[in-house]
Structure formats: structure tokens, C-alpha cells
Amino acid sequence: MNLEDETDILNCGFLEDFEQNANGRTTLNHQECDIEEVEVDCVDFLKLQTEVQENISQDFMVRKDRSKLTLMQMYSHGDAASVKLSIEVHSDFKCNLFVHRKPVTRSHVIWTDLPLLFDRVSVIMELCRRLAVNSFCSLQLQEVINMNKLYVLDLTVFILF
User: Fold this and answer.
1) For residue range 13-46, what is the model confidence (pLDDT) as tens digits?
2) Which 3 state secondary structure label does DSSP give 87?
3) CA distance linking residue 151 with residue 160, whole number of Å
4) Is residue 149's pLDDT more than 60?
5) Quick check: helix, strand or coil at residue 85?
6) Which residues contact 147 (CB under 8 A, 6 or more apart)?
7) Is residue 59 helix, strand or coil?
8) What distance in Å separates the CA atoms of residue 57 and residue 50, rounded to the nearest whole number?
């Protein structure tokens, strides 16, 4: 079969789909169909930030900007304060968790059964709840050799109690 010109290509199709019109031109028979409107629930990141801020526990400080929502839990040492843990939800709804400024990888048990995208207040609140009922501490490896529930992240060890 020679496919050099368009008529050869058309002839390879289903001939019953083509018909001659009154002008002698070949046209394609087709059926029209209705286009269905589908409503898609798009999440507005700024609205999500506001809802989280309205519902978050007082244990967390909230920082909002156009590209990121940050929830922080602090240690207070007299007049000084330092970050214990922070949750970052980005405008693409990806979430990062940091304990003592070290990232907690997705392989950690804290992420179990949580979705990859944090596009609902309930999902963000569930992560906060898990953090509230579990305690994290950072120790050197030699201090925890005999302890259970050990999760190694980079060179720091995080223990989930």
C-alpha cells in the first residue's frame, strides 16, 4: 500500500464512515454528542489557609503567604524560643514536616495513610493531631541504641513515643 497521498490514507479507514456529498467531495459521517458540564471542586489555597488558621490549635503558630502555609510548634526557654516542629503546606498542596529543622521523610510512620496532597483542612488537622499525641525528640545515635521505635533520618534519630 502506498501512503504517499492523502487519498490512500483515507482509503485505509472504514469506508462506511465516509460518504460522497452533493458536490462530489468525500466527507466523514459523524455523530454529534452533547457536551456534559462537569463541576470540578477546585481548592482555593488562600481559602484553605484561612480555614486552617480558624481551626488550628493554639499550640501552633501560623504563618501565611501566597505560596506556603507554615504551622510551627515552639519550645520556650525563658525569654527565648526555638522551633520544635513545623509543617509546611505549599500552594501545590504538597506537605513537608520538620522536627528540629530536620525534614521528616515520607517513609516515617507519621505519614501512614495520609494523602500526598494536603488539599483539605481535615488532612492538615489529622497530621497536627498525630503530632500532638506523639512526642518527638532528637538524640544522638549512641544514646538510643537500646530503645525501640527508632527512625533514622539523615544523621539525627527521631523517636516516636
Assistant:
1) 555 556 667 777 776 666 666 777 766 567 799 9
2) strand
3) 8
4) no
5) strand
6) 159
7) coil
8) 14
Q: Which amino acid is at 107?
A: S
Q: Is the pLDDT of residue 90 over 80?
A: yes
DSSP-derived letter for residue 94 is: B
* Residue 15 confidence (pLDDT): 53
Q: In what order do the strands lie in the sheet with 80-90?
A: 61-64, 68-77, 80-90, 95-99, 102-103
* The three grid cell numbers given for residue 72, joined into one nine-digit string: 510551627
In angstroms, rounded to a whole number, what is the distance separating the alpha carbons of residues 5 and 126?
Answer: 62
Mean pLDDT across 114-142: 83
Helix segments in 12-120, DSSP class H: 45-55
Q: Where are the domains of the chain?
A: 45-160
Instruction: Give the count of alpha carbons within 13 A of 73, CB side only.
Output: 17
Could you tell me the three cell numbers for 98? Answer: 520538620
CA 45 distance to own-chain centroid: 12
In the chain, count of helices (H) and strands (E)?
Answer: 3, 10
pLDDT 10s digits, 40-72: 567 799 999 999 999 998 889 999 999 999 999
| pTM across the whole model | 0.61
